[in-house]
Write a structure and sequence with these properties.
Layout: H1 2-24, E1 28-30, E2 39-43, H2 60-70, E3 75-89, E4 95-108, H3 109-126, E5 134-137, H4 142-153, E6 158-161, H5 167-177, E7 181-184, H6 186-194, E8 204-207, H7 214-221, E9 226-229, H8 230-239, E10 252-257, E11 267-271, H9 272-285, E12 294-297, H10 304-315, E13 319-322, H11 342-346, E14 350-353, H12 355-372, H13 374-391, H14 400-416, E15 424-427, H15 434-444, E16 448-452, E17 462-463, E18 476-477, E19 482-486, E20 502-508, E21 515-516, H16 520-526, E22 527-529, E23 535-545, E24 551-556, E25 560-562, E26 568-570, H17 571-578, E27 584-590, E28 599-604, H18 606-616, H19 623-628, H20 630-646, E29 657-661, H21 680-686, H22 688-696
Parallel strand pairs: 3-13, 5-6, 5-7, 6-10, 7-8, 8-9, 12-13, 12-14, 14-15, 15-16, 28-29
Antiparallel strand pairs: 1-2, 2-19, 3-4, 10-11, 11-21, 16-17, 17-18, 19-20, 20-23, 22-23, 23-24, 25-26, 27-28
Length: about 700
């Protein structure tokens, strides 16, 4: 009997001791800082703020040159060959472009560096000077990265613009920065041609594609522009080489126009030192990144998250293969049936993602499992439960040989969706739900390190560590940042709150940018310099510190609305809780001080809702009609109520009435940003009548 008791108790004691040790790890520690009084934390492993991880490197241009010389013959940039384009027509008569893509073709570090140097020399031959600005207006691709590095070698600041930016914001961004040249793709060139009369300073259009649209050619013939290709610029530079005019750390590298959730975009001025501090921090935190790793790049390079990620990967000697959100997997919208998506062909080991993408992966896997039902679903659910137990530290959880068994029997097919080799995922751009984080972590068998930062801090703020199994948090401060909470009495968030200090998140460090281009008033409002010379950015987000020094985002000042009787509602918090409903693709909660309840606009998840209607025998001619049916709305409300109860929302936080919408919100509609964040004001304006009717009925 005693041996059996020992056999049971020893693993239990070891597990408890392991949990105690694991939970006791300090990831962030208090630090004495200047500026407004608050509660500040630094990274536990870095007593001083990190500015560079490479000796003698103080700019992105230096980092890239160093990496190219060190890894000259290794693959750097990969692009898939286009085999064919086809058009498919759906049952309702809509046409869709489908692509048949081949293998990746690669450029080595040495070849890319040669292209960058030639491009830089070509810019000089065209007459572009260091004090002028160049805009890049294109989807993510190899030419984007090459153009960026070429501009850096001539110390030409790059204005980045989302490819999905609307006409008004596009013209505003280009005119405000007085750009001389725009680097773009053929698709974006058509947009530029349409607004050419509104662009005041553009002299050159540098097209990434060899073929240019006829509309652009006519503008060029009028003498307003000179249109050349990237290949032409490289040829000019190859025939007329000049030495690089490398920047200093304090020189502006990028002016990044954010597709903000309100009003016209603001241009954030980032120095080489600002971005390098974050690149260095990520390189230090992501241990084991090496030249054998392969990164799948598909997020917008006009977003600082992707610029940081690609510079980290290049600095480590790894490879970057380019894809798109529409061709990512074998079942992506633009992939021709029977052919392979980007992830299947590239088989990446490292990826970055925004929560909306990961939510779709989770929903897709769950729907497939539910559709198969029977033994398949039972096996998946059992394996998932065993892995959760192991992650939570239960000694009954699947580990060792059993883990290998579940990986082979159950999770291998899930991992194949993203190529089967993912060992690290970075999530940023918006809060990631705990359910999605855990689901992806279990199914892919790779840690999801969630980060928190803003364009104004070059995406740097906090980053969760590999050995942190918790969900719902955004990690501890990155080595280049201090994170401080300050009191916000109006919202009831104070650093004296128990059990955790809470308040508005303020970020300080070498990654905090110079401010907004030609907007001194807004810069003074959101950026402060303390008595020690430290720059701080006031985020407007509300957070709380856990005992181990990790941050959790709990609210946003702008998202808090007071109802008629004085109760506060956090719109973002409620939306995050309700979007987990299988029938919801997107949702916007609406509340105002003149009513005692809230309402919601809900974008319906088409596959789930049509499947429900089919099971219920509900007839409909199109999806818009289904969304108008009374029984559909009742089903949606019941689903929202279930999600609300699971999240323990208060009664007043649950929308009393909803309007169900059939058309998705995309960056092209202007209702969400390129990072798929809700543009609340734009949605309110677009659906003003619908919202009014919800309150009237």
């Amino acid at each position: 009997m005693i041996p059996y008791i020992v056999a049971i108790l020893v693993p239990l004691i070891i597990t408890l001791l392991y949990q105690k040790t694991k939970n006791a790890k300090k990831r962030g520690v208090p630090v004495d800082v200047g500026g407004e009084p608050g509660y500040a934390i630094r990274n536990a492993q870095f007593p001083t703020l990190l500015e560079t991880a490479w000796e003698g490197v103080s700019t992105l241009a230096q980092l890239f040159e160093m990496a190219c010389k060190k890894h000259e013959h290794k693959c750097l940039l990969g692009t898939r060959t286009l085999i064919s384009k086809d058009t498919e027509v759906s049952a309702d008569g809509r046409s869709f472009e489908k692509l048949h893509l081949g293998e990746y073709e690669w450029l080595t570090y040495g070849q890319v560096f040669e292209k960058v140097c030639n491009f830089a020399s070509g810019l000089a031959h065209l007459g572009l000077r260091s004090e002028e600005r160049v805009a890049i207006f294109a989807d993510t691709r190899a030419e984007w990265f090459i153009s960026l590095q070429g501009c850096f070698r001539r110390n030409v600041p790059v204005v980045t613009i989302y490819a999905s930016l609307g006409e008004e914001a596009l013209c505003y961004s280009l005119n405000e920065t007085e750009v001389t040249a725009v680097i773009c793709g053929a698709k974006e060139l058509k947009k530029l041609a349409e607004v050419s009369g509104q662009l005041e300073t553009v002299k050159y259009i540098i097209c990434m594609d060899d073929e240019t649209p006829s509309s652009a050619s006519s503008v060029a013939q009028s003498g307003r522009w000179r249109v050349v290709s990237v290949a032409d610029v490289e040829k000019l530079g190859r025939e007329n080489p000049v030495d690089g005019a490398l920047p200093l750390s304090e020189d502006v590298a990028v002016i990044m126009y954010t597709s903000g959730s309100t009003g016209l975009p603001k241009g954030v001025m980032m120095t080489h030192g600002n971005v390098l501090a974050v690149v260095s921090s990520v390189r230090t935190i992501v241990t084991g990144l090496e030249d054998k790793d392969v990164y799948l790049a598909y997020l917008p390079l006009a977003h600082i998250l992707e610029i940081v990620a690609e510079n980290v990967v290049a600095g480590a000697g790894s490879a970057i293969g380019y894809g798109t959100p529409m061709t990512l997997t074998d079942t992506s919208n633009k992939i021709k049936r029977g052919t392979k998506g980007d992830a299947t062909v590239l088989r990446p080991t490292v990826m970055a993602a925004v929560p909306a993408i990961l939510d779709r992966v989770r929903d897709g896997v769950q729907k497939k499992v539910d559709a198969k039902g029977g033994l398949t679903k039972k096996l998946f659910d059992f394996a998932y439960a065993r892995r959760i137990s192991a992650i939570n530290g239960s000694w009954f959880g699947a580990g060792g040989i059993e883990l290998l068994l579940w990986n082979f029997l159950v999770f291998r097919k899930v991992r194949a969706v993203l190529g089967g080799r993912i060992r690290f995922l970075l999530s940023g751009g918006a809060p990631l739900s705990g359910d999605t984080q855990r689901f992806i972590n279990v199914c892919l068998g790779a840690p999801i390190c969630q980060g928190y930062g803003l364009t104004e801090t070059c995406a740097g703020g906090t980053f969760s560590e590999f050995d942190d199994p918790s969900v719902g948090r955004v990690g501890n401060p990155v080595p280049c940042s201090y994170i401080k909470l300050i009191d916000w009495p109006e919202g009831g968030y104070l650093i004296s709150n128990s059990p955790m200090p809470r308040g508005e998140i303020v970020i300080g460090g070498p990654n905090v940018t110079l401010g907004y281009f030609k907007n001194e008033a807004k810069t003074k409002e959101e950026f402060k310099v303390d008595e020690r010379g430290m720059r701080w950015f006031y985020t407007g987000d509300i957070g709380q510190f856990h005992a181990d020094g990790c941050l959790e985002i709990i609210d946003r000042k702008k998202d808090i609305v007071k109802l008629q009787h004085g109760e506060y509602i956090s719109l973002g918090k409620v939306e995050a809780a309700l979007v987990v409903s299988p029938y919801v693709e997107n949702i916007m909660l609406h509340a105002d001080p003149f009513h005692s309840y809230c309402v919601a606009l809900v974008v319906a998840a088409r596959p789930a809702l049509e499947e429900w209607a089919s099971k219920k025998g509900i007839a409909f001619t199109d999806f818009a009609e289904l969304c108008e049916k009374e029984e559909t709305i009742k089903e949606l409300q019941a689903s929202l109520l279930k999600a609300a109860k699971a999240a323990r929302l208060e009664k007043l936080e649950i929308p009393t009435k909803i309007k169900l919408l059939s058309d998705p919100w995309t960056p092209e509609t202007g209702l969400v940003t390129a990072a798929l964040k809700l543009k609340r004001e734009a949605v309110r304006n677009a659906f003003f009548e619908e919202l009014s009717k919800l309150y009237e009925s």
